Amino acid sequence: MAAHESTYEPKSRFAKWMDDRLPIGRMVHDQFVDFPTPRNLNYLWTFGSILTFFLMAQILTGIVLAMHYQASAADAFDSIERIRRDVNYGWLLRPLHAVGASMFFLAAYIHIFRGLYYGSYKAPREILWIIGVLIFVAMMATAFLGYSLPWGQMSFWAVTVITNLFSSLDDLISGLGTTVVQWLWGGYSVTGVTLTRFYSLHYLLPFVIAGLVGMHIWALHVVGQNNPTGLELKTKSDAVPMHPYAISKDAVGMFVFLIVFLWFVFFLPDYLGHSDNYVPANPMVTPPHIVPEWYFLPYYAILRAIPSKLLGVIAMFSSIGILFFLPWLDTSLVRSAKYRPLYKWFFWLFVFTCVALGYLGSKPAEGAYIFWARVFTIYYFAHFLIVLPVLGLIEKPKKLPGSITEDVLGPEGTAAAAAAGKRG
Amino acid sequence: MEIDGEEPDRRDFLTLAAGTFVAVGGAISLWPFIDQMNIDAGARSLASIEVDIAPISVGQAITVLWRNKPVFIRHRTKEEIEKALAVDVKDLPDDSARNEGLPSSALATDENRTKPGHENWLIMVGICTHLGCIPKGQTLGDKQGDFDGWFCPCHGSHYDTAGRIRKGPAPRNLEVPIYEFITDTKIKLG
Question: Terminus of chain B with fewer CB atoms < 10 Å: N or C?
Answer without folding.
Answer: N
